[in-house]
Amino acid sequence: MAEEKPFWTIWSIGGLLLSIAILLYSGIISDLSFVELIEGTGSMVNLILKFFPPDFLRWWSYFQATIETIAMGIWGTLLAVIVAIPLSILASENVCPTWVVFPTRRILDAMRAINELVFALIFIVAVGLGPFAGVLALFIHTAGTLGKLFSEAIEAIDPGPVEGIRATGSSKVQEVIFGIIPQVVPLWTSFTLYRFESNVRSASVLGIVGAGGIGVALYQNFRAFNYQNVSAILIILIVTVGAIDTISARIRNRLV
């Protein structure tokens, strides 16, 4: 009978101590101070009280800006899907050779590693202020994220249908179109809907740097200390995102 290995080996103890050390060091360099948070609670409450009652006098203007934000999310997500599909196929180990997979994954890493705000600042220089810069920023970042998620879905497929298509003498492209894509479309759609929700939220912040959407009004009212207007904008934004989340969640439940 083989001797059972003790659960608490020197490696597991060392790993636990290392994890604790990393957490403590991360807390120090992150300047975590829950005492300061508790002490500042009163000031935070006083600020929040200034948000009420919300001022909906300009609600139609805010609503139109929210529609612009949704439009930015739609186009940013659509362009990202168009680019992410071929990149995800090239980044899948069960489809392409390593010399193709490795550089493609690094490209996807670079696309999603940089925040949308940074991309927005870059595109503002190219196309000027406005929602188009925001669309391009969302597009690049989302393409990197969806490319990664799509490739993981491809690598998790059942190889049976692909092998069956290959046995008929089909080309690599036919294997992808008829053997892989039908298996991953429901999951791809779910990922896309989730990223659309996320992009609407992100688009609402891009206005801070002049990239259009409701973020412009939000930033201007914050700077002018018009907190009641800020409250109205936030309420409209919360209701909008909640409605999008409810609709997309029902679609995802039907697909997956």
Automatic annotation (TrEMBL):
**Keyword Transmembrane helix part of the UniProt annotation:** yes
Q: How does it sit in the membrane?
A: Multi-pass membrane protein
Q: Name one GO cellular component term.
A: plasma membrane
The keyword Kinase is annotated on this UniProt entry: no
* Keyword annotations from UniProtKB, A to Z: Cell membrane, Membrane, Transmembrane, Transmembrane helix, Transport
Q: Which Gene3D superfamilies match?
A: MetI-like
Cellular localisation: Cell membrane
Q: What GO molecular function annotations does the UniProt record carry, in alphabetical order?
A: ABC-type phosphonate transporter activity
Q: What residues form the membrane-spanning segments?
A: 6-25, 72-96, 117-140, 203-222, 228-247
Residue ranges of the ABC transmembrane type-1 domain?
A: 66-248
Q: Which family does it belong to?
A: Belongs to the binding-protein-dependent transport system permease family.
**Protein name, as recorded:** Phosphonate ABC transporter, permease protein PhnE
Organism, as annotated: Rubidibacter lacunae KORDI 51-2
Q: What taxonomic classification does the UniProt entry list for its organism?
A: Bacteria, Bacillati, Cyanobacteriota, Cyanophyceae, Oscillatoriophycideae
